[in-house]
Write a structure and sequence with these properties.
The complex is a heterodimer. By secondary structure, chain A is of the alpha/beta class. Chain A contains 15 helices and 14 strands. Chain B is built from six helices and no strands. The chains are: A alpha/beta, B mainly alpha.
């Protein structure tokens, strides 16, 4: 790998969870991969994270302390167990339903989110250790608190979505106080500029690199024997990710068109399978990375029904597996990927889903052409060399910018 | 499947053009009533986020809802999958259905009435607000048109006079 900067620096990457496997969220995977590649470029890298594994319970499962993973030091700190989960969930429910909350409630929500006083104390007691602090995603107490400690050398990696939480005053303050913001995509940056009015000078689009692989559908076919054609979804299964929509749409599609199309899920989270759905829905659960890629290669179409994406890693992976995608047009990020890559189609509502899926199922040449264009898009724009060039350029530019005065919500 | 076989011509693919074709085809089918289907209304319940972002979705959803609003409370053919004692079981089911129908019919028909009234109210509200919005947009266009073609502001008259 090429080295991109001359002076070695000490980077701290702060994220709510860490795993060297694929069992954490996309944002945390992104931070880990950026950290690994930063270390590979000759910099000293420490990941500061919590002892939690489960993003529902946030129980301290990993022993606190330091561990080394490859070239990266990871320090685990306990999550504050005194947080008031009831208050947190009550306010979170109101925010997510767009019910206005007052400043005190916003503060109570973030204070009772995932926090780690031990992690903050570690940072405070080492004012001269870290040259650059990269933290995210924006929804967690850890990110908000860390951004207050050394805002002038903190870069936010928000993974921002157009959702009610993005419109809180504390979120606006977070975007205003850090030295700069690293986005995953242009539509994500435009969303932040629209909501918070952040200037171009404080924003950089970086994203995440992906390592190309040779698609091999056989291991998945042998293990699961799913009949073709099938539509695949990989990732967290929850209403915010659009999985109920995908099930409802495919059920309607099967009824209206009499096509025997199967639906395969990989990933974690509950699935609400309709009566009779077990005959055409296969839940593979969390798969090892190679088997997940194999599933992508075996799929006829990869569908991403989520509207809340800042990068859409699985779509990029599906293209590397040479499979075309069908995405929810409600996500500007996914739609832009498809438009720029010419690697997939999109839908706004059921009729467009039906029409687009029929085209994809009936035209193997179209599927292959879209898949090939998608793969070449990922290879050219999401190579690690390209991503790290953008990252280091962004860090150098943004840390020369004067930080705005701290805004306390 | 060897996907490399089909990579020729990948450069010419234009997703935006294909989507424009799909959208045109969907519009035609919507106009012809091809999607007026209670099953679509049910599926779209999970896509209500589209209400906030897409104007045309509301009209489409209401048309689907019109098809789904009336619960079918009529008699239907009663089957029995088990062959053993099938005639007896069918007769038993018919008796149960008739007994139930006696007092559920009134409930379901009232529910259908409520559904229809609610849908009509929502449709009327949608129509009303759409009309209002159109009026406001027209008025805005008129006002901005007047501003563009109106007399030049005072300061520029003075500059002209100075010439």
């Amino acid at each position: 790998m090429k080295k991109h900067t001359s002076r070695p620096q000490h980077f701290a990457f702060v994220c709510p969870r860490f795993s060297d496997q694929t069992t954490v969220g996309g944002a945390e995977t992104l931070l880990r991969r950026l950290a690994e590649h930063t270390a590979a470029n000759g910099h000293q890298v420490t990941i500061l994270t919590t002892c939690a594994r489960d993003h529902f319970t946030w129980r301290n499962e990993i022993p606190p302390g330091e561990k080394k993973f490859g070239q990266v030091h990871v320090v685990f700190f306990p999550v504050d167990e005194n947080r008031n989960v009831e208050t947190f969930l009550r306010i979170q429910d109101r925010i997510s339903r767009n019910i206005p909350v007052c400043d005190a409630e916003e503060k109570a929500w973030i204070n009772n989110s995932v926090n780690s006083p031990a992690l903050y104390e570690h940072l405070r007691s080492r004012p001269d250790i870290y040259d650059v602090i990269v933290t995210g995603p924006y929804l967690f107490g850890v990110t908000h608190a860390v951004s207050r400690i050394y805002p002038a050398r903190t870069l936010l990696l928000p993974c921002l979505h157009d959702e009610p939480f993005a419109y809180l005053k504390i979120t606006r303050a977070l975007f205003q106080r850090t030295a700069g913001i690293l986005f995953n995509s242009r539509p994500e940056m435009e969303l932040a500029q629209r909501i918070y009015g952040v200037s171009d000078q404080r924003c950089r689009v970086v994203g995440m690199g992906l390592d190309p692989f040779t698609p091999d559908p056989e291991p998945f076919r042998k293990r699961f024997r799913v009949p073709t054609p099938f539509v695949l979804y990989s990732g967290r299964r929850e209403p915010l990710k659009g999985t109920p929509l995908l099930i409802a749409y495919l059920q309607t599609f099967r009824e209206r068109t009499s096509r025997n199309v199967h639906l395969v899920f990989t990933g974690s989270g509950p699935l609400d399978i309709p009566p009779g759905g077990t005959t055409w829905i296969t839940d593979c659960g969390v798969l090892p990375e190679n088997l997940k890629r194999s599933a992508m290669a075996a799929a006829t179409v990869f569908c991403h029904p989520s509207t809340l994406e800042s990068l859409g890693i699985v779509v990029l992976e599906a293209w590397l597996a040479q499979t075309p995608v069908l995405v929810n047009a409600g996500s500007a990020v996914l739609r832009e990927h498809c438009r720029n890559a010419n690697g997939g189609l999109w839908f706004r509502f059921y009729p467009e889903f039906e029409e687009a899926l029929l085209r994809l199922l009936d035209d193997p040449h179209l599927r292959s052409a879209l898949a090939a264009a998608g793969r070449s898009y990922v290879e050219s724009r999401f190579s690690w060399d390209e991503i790290m060039r953008r990252f280091f350029d962004g860090v150098a530019d943004l840390l020369q910018q004067p930080a705005l005065p701290e805004v306390r919500p | 499947m060897n996907k490399d076989l089909f990579t020729i011509g990948a450069k010419e693919i234009d997703a935006a053009r294909i989507m424009a074709e799909i959208e045109a085809s969907v519009q035609q089918k919507i106009a012809s009533g091809a999607y007026d289907d209670a099953r679509i209304a049910r599926a779209e319940r999970t896509n209500l986020a589209a209400f906030a972002s897409q104007d045309e979705f509301v009209g489409f959803y209401l048309r689907c809802l019109r098809d789904a609003v009336s619960v079918d409370i009529g008699d239907y053919e009663i089957h029995e999958r088990r062959s053993f004692l099938a005639p007896l079981l069918v007769s038993l089911k018919k008796i149960i259905w008739k007994l139930l129908k006696f007092y559920t019919y009134r409930l379901w028909s009232q529910q259908n009435e409520v559904n229809a009234l609610l849908l009509t109210a929502v449709e009327n509200m949608e129509e009303k607000y759409e009309r209002r919005l159109r009026d406001i947009e027209r008025r805005l266009d008129e006002l901005s048109g007047k501003q563009d073609s109106g007399p030049p502001p005072e300061s520029s008259e003075k500059i002209d006079g100075a010439k």
